[in-house]
């Protein structure tokens, strides 16, 4: 025991010495305004094994940790000075931190966070706001603000954060970097100050997708498996409609990259809210109990918030009532709501969580990924009104709650800039599909960046990279495939999806008419052909198909017989035209 204590004191002594040395060396970065770190110190990995043994996988990499992780001999600050004053030093380092240390990475300090991890803004009344290196006039996002900024500013190779409601995904989107929220429960959260255990996860940031994957393999303790590519890509159409960002550029860039890697036929559009409404039946009971009139996703968001409040109250209500800490006004309002929260619906919300996970796992089975916006708009400006931030937060959580309530892994992928402010999209996989999702990021990342560079630099030709047009073409291709397989109802469904995305394409209406003809739905076929001809008077196939439809409807005079008889042979038996063009 005495030798262990001696080693502990020796390590602590080295840490303090490292704090002085690193603090002086890195102070220039702070003076430049990044403000990512609350404390500099040095935690060294074990010595690497001698050759010919391979070095640990993270050898040579540096990282930082959010001030929510325990480091032996240091007090975890949790973003609030009163918390810091009233808590004792940690007796051991958090297992997640130990994992990356043992894998060869070196920790150089702790980073700032929002008070009690109860915000996605990145602003802190007591310690200030870390400066977003990618957009200095905008907030960096939180609550893992310092960790995101440290990576975005190239101060470290990767950084650990936590994500309860969006505290890795949102700052990653704001700072233009990769941010990974793993499946809930797969990375140990011991030694991490809890916010709300039903949603707490250990996440991480990186700029390099290879580093993101390396860190993930260490934290997830994954065995080797063969790399798999997505077999189906779902685009959350209703979620993108919530976004105020230019989807022609953002979604177009992602779809072009997916088409290059996987082909067009893997892409499908989906209304996630409708899917959840059909498959998460308990959400209806919750909305009724709370008298909610909003959308299904808004109900899912409110359910998550309600459980988050109750768990935060259970974790920290007694300490807050006892200490009466000084709290920033924005966070104080949410904490007040938490302390007043009722637990009457907790069991119902847990049912919603369980059903959400089952539903999303079913949707994302067989190597399926879901693409959706990470946040609904650009990062808000610094010093925005609290009402503006509250509105943004509410809209953001309508998107972020899908991953939170289902517990599925989700990653923010940067996709260019709008008005010099980073934008990104999220990719989600089923619960437990973390390795698959990390591999997908590595496969897609370079192509997405290349396509985004082209699309965003050519603002006068946005229609070329239109996300809607790309998705419509993909739907048409799926319709063609179904038609060849003689699955005509399925073909109609896909062509209808293409028309919904791009209602100005004569081809989509004409193709759907062909499927309706095969189903003997002649009125609908005639209507589709008429629409196609109104869009393109030279669409020969539409003219031919309309003639066929009108003949079967008995409209012989209107069947465009003159044109049909001059281009196609008539029936040898009766002289009338019976053959339709498909």
CATH class of the largest domain: Alpha Beta
**So, CATH architecture of the largest domain?**
Alpha-Beta Complex
Quickly count the domains: 2
The amount of helix comes to 40-55%
Instruction: Specify the structural class.
Output: alpha/beta
Number of helices in the DSSP assignment: 21
Sheet with the most strands, sense and barrel status? 11 strands, mixed
Pick out the low-confidence regions.
1-23, 460-466, 561-566, 568-582
Strand order of the largest sheet: 1-3-2-4-6-5-10-11-9-7-8
Shape: globular
Distance between the termini: 83 Å
Would you report the number of β strands?
A: 11
Output the CATH topology of the largest domain.
Amidase signature (AS) enzymes
Strand residues, percent:
5-15%
Rg for CA atoms: 28 Å
Describe the structure.
- The structure is a single chain.
- The chain has 582 residues and is an alpha/beta fold.
- It has 2 domains: 21-378 and 390-457, Amidase signature (AS) enzymes, CATH 3.90.1300; 486-553, Serine Threonine Protein Phosphatase 5, Tetratricopeptide repeat.
- Helix content is 50%, strand content 11%.
- It has 21 helices and 11 strands.
- The chain has helices spanning 2-31, 81-85, 95-102, 145-152, 169-175, 209-220, 237-242, 247-262, 272-279, 282-289, 296-323, 329-339, 346-363, 386-406, 434-457, 467-484, 488-501, 506-518, 522-535, 540-553, 561-567, and strands at 37-43, 62-66, 106-111, 158-162, 178-181, 202-206, 232-236, 267-270, 368-373, 410-418, 421-428.
- Strands 1-3-2-4-6-5-10-11-9-7-8 form an 11-stranded mixed beta sheet, sandwiched between helices.
- A hairpin with a 2-residue loop joins strand 10 (410-418) and strand 11.
- Helix 6 runs antiparallel to helix 15 and helix 11 crosses helix 12.
- The radius of gyration is 28 Å and the shape is globular.
- Mean pLDDT is 88; it is low at 1-23, 460-466, 561-566 and 568-582.
- Residues 55-438 form the Amidase domain.
- One of its GO terms (molecular function) is hydrolase activity, acting on carbon-nitrogen (but not peptide) bonds, in linear amides.
- InterPro entries: Amidase_CS (IPR020556), Amidase_dom (IPR023631), AS_sf (IPR036928), TPR-like_helical_dom_sf (IPR011990), TPR_rpt (IPR019734).
- This is Amidase domain-containing protein.
